[in-house]
Amino acid sequence: MEREDLHEVFERIQSGIVIIDPADHTIIDINPTALSLIGRDRDEVLGRVCHHSICPAERGNCPITDLGQAIDNSERVLINHDGQRIPILKTATKAILSGKEMIIESFIDNRDRRVAEERRCALIGYIDETVMRIREPLVLVQQNLADIAVRMDTLP
Predict the structure, then answer these.
(1) For residues 56 and 79, what is the distance between their CA atoms, to the nearest angstrom?
(2) pLDDT band (50, 70, 90) for residue 18
(3) Per-residue pLDDT tens over the stretch 121-138
């Protein structure tokens, strides 16, 4: 695969991708999907420190370079241009690009999945309550039938 082909994939993939220099945490490259999620233009992000542009970790607390963590399909947050925290599913790893070690972060927007999970939990709660409301009258009817059966046994 040619370099131009790889660049085309980088530009069109539906996951956000950010390439970061681990030495100073500056953003070397970022794809359109990532830019769309953070709501910034390319020139506003390139060359900026990732802590100020996309990552909530403070300087000296980078999970990859400072804390030695591997981020693999972890739920994290992305900071957009308004300071809003967007839930994402993120992977970050080190790789050698053009002979230099870089951090490659890839992520997907996790908001829709979170909303679906909240709706699922609300639906389960509703079904549980409905079952309890149905069960209560049935228990009362069952008790009444038992009382009637006892009375029927005592009739002459």
Answers:
(1) 7
(2) very high
(3) 888 887 878 777 777 777
The whole-number pLDDT of residue 113 equals 78
pTM, to two decimals: 0.69
Which of 35, 21, 108 is CA-nearest to residue 64? 21
The DSSP code sequence of 71-125 is EEEEEEEEE-TTS-EEEEEEEEEEEEETTEEEEEEEEEE-HHHHHHHHHHHHHHH
Cβ-based neighbours of 145, under 8 Å, separated by 6 or more: none
Tokens 């909240």 belong to 118
Alpha helices in the chain (DSSP H): 3-12, 32-38, 42-45, 50-53, 111-154
